[in-house]
Amino acid sequence: MENKKGHPQTAQNTHGDHNDNSAHTQRLVMLAAFKVKPSITTIEARRDLDILMPAARVFELRAMGYDIATIWTHGITERGRKHRIARYVFRQSAS
User: Fold this and answer.
1) What is the pTM of this model?
2) Would you state the CATH architecture of domain 20-92?
3) Each residue's pLDDT tens digit, 5-29
């Protein structure tokens, strides 16, 4: 029996617009952000890009062939708390 994860309708955007908050749209938003700034932290992705699970989006982009490195660092949240966070560095587009 084949085990598929996720909901089939969220796996791909069938609506033709990107005004939703689907995983597909979040990947597009993250790729566009990498063109402006080649590194994004988890805090920046959540606060500035409205991507609440940036690690999952990076995982999916890597599976699509994008070369994205993870550098572990520390950052301060808007509430002033220090956390160990990931900084994602875009290195190469998918072939």
Assistant:
1) 0.76
2) Orthogonal Bundle (1.10)
3) 444 444 444 445 556 899 999 999 9
